[in-house]
UniProtKB/TrEMBL annotation:
Name recorded for this polypeptide: DUF1269 domain-containing protein
Pfam families recorded: DUF1269
Keywords, sorted A to Z: Membrane, Transmembrane, Transmembrane helix
Transmembrane segments: 65-91
InterPro entries on file: DUF1269_membrane
Amino acid sequence: MATFTVWSFDTPGGAEVASGVLRDAASEGLIKIVDRAIVTWPEGAKKPTTRHTHEDEWRGTGWGAFWGLLFGALFFVPVIGVAAGAALGAIHKSMEAVGLNKDQLDRIRAQVTEGTSALFAVTEDGNLDRVGERFHGLHGELIATNLTDAERQLLLETFD
């Protein structure tokens, strides 16, 4: 099963560093990255920048559409206002299909703010103990996942 996780970092460059660590772990066969995206929000910027990494060119178009929909729902549609209410409802419904509910979307939106960054990752077949070792000291916080409560707790224990 694919695991969707969102990690926030208290610096604009934190997610980029974590993305490199994840990529290195994948090159060692410790985890399979299905796809990932990075959101960076530098101090003084009015909105964040997003970058989709295109792990698999064959699937890249589909994931690009997903990331666009997700980031639009998180960072760009809310500023449009009430007129976008129906569209926002449809977006939330689409996100629930991948395991993200409205509360999680709200939590992501609240924690990814100016001066921070976030790593959005879709992974499979991870050796959590060995991957978790590499994430120690990165000061990331898991803010959303499609894992069950038990799986989430194991992930937090491993990466903390």
